[in-house]
Specification:
Elements lengths: L1 E6 L9 H10 L5 E6 L2 H13 L4 H22 L5 E2 L2 H7 L4 E5 L2 H6 L17 H11 L4 E6 L11 H6 L5 H5 L7 E5 L6 E5 L13
Parallel strand pairs: 1-2, 1-5, 2-4, 3-4, 5-6
Antiparallel strand pairs: 6-7
Helix pairs in contact: 2-3
């Protein structure tokens, strides 16, 4: 079983993040967990600079992608027992066995992702680490996709990805690739204990519409 876990950039300043991640991973069913970190304050700073003095959108996109290498190395520094991999071929070899890998996606984004079938990631501000992690989940044919965040959507309960994109909870590219994604969970890792919600699959009737 393969589980792709996006570690939200908003969690990078969470006290005891390494300990919380270890506890959360230990509580999950057996799988190979592929951890993809978000950009967090590093990408936020780039957005601030862009607002003050606009940057070419394609160039800004690849700057953001490169910053994920920094946060991947940061996560590995905090979780040294989990190997850091930036080669997608090596990642494919590792996911066949239980365990965990921190994945730095920049080389994969440049050399492999554009040639994959399915929803392509545009080189624009629309693409965030959410959709990069989702694209990886689809490419690996993962059994599960988890978004670790600082909050759950307002109102809680099951919400389709399109509704989450409409309120800015996820990026619009991830919503467009919904039919390609494995079962998806949203987890508020700032809560103690963590709380979560599940997104309905395309065509599935959300649970709050079911009688009983």
């Amino acid at each position: 079983m393969i589980r792709v876990v996006k570690v939200g950039g908003s969690l990078l300043d969470l006290p005891e993040l390494p300990q919380r991640l270890r506890r959360w991973l230990a509580a999950q069913s057996t799988a190979h967990n592929v951890l993809v970190p978000g950009g967090g304050p590093l990408v936020d700073q780039l957005r601030t600079w862009n607002a003050a003095e606009p940057i070419d959108e394609i160039a800004a996109h690849w700057m953001c992608v490169d910053l994920l290498t920094v946060t991947a190395h940061l996560l590995h520094a905090w979780l040294p027992e989990i190997p850091l991999v930036e080669n997608d071929r090596l990642l494919c070899q590792r996911v066949g066995e239980p365990g965990a890998t921190i994945f730095g996606p920049a080389p994969w984004m440049r050399h492999s992702e554009p040639g994959l079938p399915g929803t392509w990631l545009p080189s624009s501000w629309e693409t965030t680490s959410d959709s990069i992690a989702g694209r990886l989940a689809a490419a690996l044919r993962a059994d599960e996709f988890v978004l670790l965040k600082s909050v759950l959507p307002r109102g809680g309960g099951s919400k389709e990805l399109s509704a989450l994109a409409a309120v800015g909870y996820i990026d619009p590219v991830l919503a467009r690739m919904a039919p390609e994604l494995p079962p998806t969970r949203l987890v508020n890792l700032r809560a103690d204990p963590p709380v979560e919600a599940r997104t309905p699959r395309p065509g599935e009737i959300p649970s709050h519409f079911l009688a009983g």
